[in-house]
Write a structure and sequence with these properties.
With about 120 residues, this protein is mainly beta. The chain has one helix and six strands, in the order ββββαββ.
């Protein structure tokens, strides 16, 4: 695996999506019908000892450039390693909006380039 995207911003679906996330958390990418790539987070079971089912929630979606780069790989369900690499809490930003950044690793032959 090689880095496909070192750092890409996630457009959060709502500001409270940054609660209970941490650096290094694994994420999943899913291509939506509208062509956007959603960033999915699996929440651990709420019961002790891992009893119960994990829940998936949409953290947000990728921007246009990241979507164009990864669309082919996500559509082909290529193996990708997606992790949170930076979190900017809302209280540290002038705009008052939290920001989350991810990195994506995978096989470079699975990505669509402008020349293909």
């Amino acid at each position: 695996m090689r880095p496909l995207i070192h750092k890409a911003s996630v457009k959060l679906t709502s500001p409270d999506r940054t609660k209970n996330i941490s650096l290094g958390d694994p994420l999943t990418l899913r291509l939506q019908k509208d062509g956007k790539i959603s960033v999915i987070r699996a929440s651990p079971p709420k019961l002790p000892f891992g009893i119960g089912m994990s829940r998936e929630s949409i953290l947000g979606h990728l921007g246009d450039q990241a979507t164009e780069l990864l669309k082919h790989a996500v559509a082909q369900e290529a193996r990708l390693r997606v992790r949170i690499v930076e979190i900017e809490p809302a209280y540290l930003r002038v705009s008052g909006d939290a920001r989350v950044f991810i990195s994506v690793w995978g096989d470079p032959t699975n990505v669509q380039t402008n020349g293909s």
